[in-house]
DUF1461 domain-containing protein (Senegalimassilia faecalis), 242 residues
Amino acid sequence: MQALNKLVAIGSTVSLAVTLIAAGFAAATVPDWATVALSRAFSGCDQPLTPFTHDELTSMAVAGKHYTFDSNNADELNEAIAAANASAEADGRATVIGEASETRRLPADAISHLDDVYRVVSVAKPALAVIAVLCVAGLAHVAVRINRRALGRVLIAGGAFVLAAFAALGIWALVDFYGLFGVFHSLFFQAGTWTFSIDSLLITLYPTAFWMGMAGIWLAVTCGLSILAVLVGFTLGHKQHD
């Protein structure tokens, strides 16, 4: 029984760390508010000659987010892009002649990359949900079958590990964000499938500043929850000691 309890405690620590990381990712990608706010702030920031307004860029960015992380509904994405182009043409900001350009459309390679992301997310979502359930079950087991002090140690270990890992990643991002961005993509996608020209619509919608903002939200939420886990862990350990 002692060996089982130790194994559950270790598994709970690992699953807690993964769940804390997943919570930050979910906060950045599941609700629309992050995409809307970051798109309004940064979409088109590197392309002053883009024919699209901030509202049009935001509409397309949100549709692209839904396509990539939620529904993979091509109709919604195509309709948002078509509406933005029609509006730009009607106002004289763009002409029909350049409508097929990658500065105003998402070509096949861009859609293919979004599909690649969707496939990764489709596998990750249920896997992370299962890990979260196992985390809760494991923490409950530690609290009931062992004691609250052991639960505190698990919370401290899981939270501290994530804080240390994210601190290292944060320093890396400050020193070389492009390098970190490249390594992260190389873990999931083939080389050459996720790089696009600076004036392409995909990069116009989601420039580097946009992804830095997403990373900031992820970092803030995950670190906030990790700090909370550590504080609760210390509290439990202190009470048990008393």
